[in-house]
Amino acid sequence: MGMFGRSHDLRQLDQALRSVDVHPAVVPEAYRAAAEIVGYCMVGADIFAGANAAEVVLAVERRIEAALQSGESLDAQLVLLTLHAGVIQPSVVRAYGLETTRE
Fold first, then answer.
1. 47: domain range?
2. Is 86 among the domain residues?
3. Would you place residue 5 in the very low, low, confident or very high pLDDT band (cuts 50, 70, 90)?
4. In principle, which of 19, 43, 76, 86 could form an S-S bond with 67, CB 3.0–4.6 Å?
């Protein structure tokens, strides 16, 4: 936060998050691509599709699938973040067969 409110970059981030139907206050600082993955995981496929073009939805779903196969990308870390933070939609957990191990 700057002396005169949020910086230009943070306002752009807020706008990007809102464009994928996620309120900026519930998401840690990120960029558009991260907002798409986090947003999809948090609101689920149906709500995300209602706020985004079909090609964006398909691109994000492909990124999630690739992330789960690689297991070590930033996208994979973002999916895991939503899972471990308990903010992931159950429908996303089911659709991608996600699970968490608790010790």
1. 8-96
2. yes
3. low
4. 76
